[in-house]
Task: structure prediction
Amino acid sequence: MAERKIRVLIGKPGLDGHDRGAKTIAAVLRDHGMEVIYTGLHQTPAMIAETALQEDVDVVGLSILSGAHMTLFPRVREELEKRGKGDVLMTGGGIIPQDDIDALEEAGFSKLFGPGTATDDVAKWIKETMQERWKNEEIEA
Result:
């Protein structure tokens, strides 16, 4: 049986115009064997959620440096739920204070990564988390 590929959407919500980190993580995830869809800059939460639905992704990773994470990240989650994709693994990164990381993780983001996180650690975490989810799905089936 062929190994199931992890499908990841990397989104840049809002007016944040810095995407070097998002492009870097997209390349690293591809190097780790994942299928990656990058939305590009200046996406609305609805646009990100619609792309996640159309591309049938397993993971949505958001990148933000603008400081609007407490507004935009929950909106993306709401838009995913509206489309029946509330079970997608939510992650992200950027310049996010620890108090906000705690609040976002409480609101359904599995893990948020800050500056200086090794990109291979992000890929490893996604792989391990998705393998555990898929294993649990098989047990429940």
User: Anything to note?
Assistant: The first helix runs from residue 20 to 31. The first strand starts at residue 7 and ends at 11.
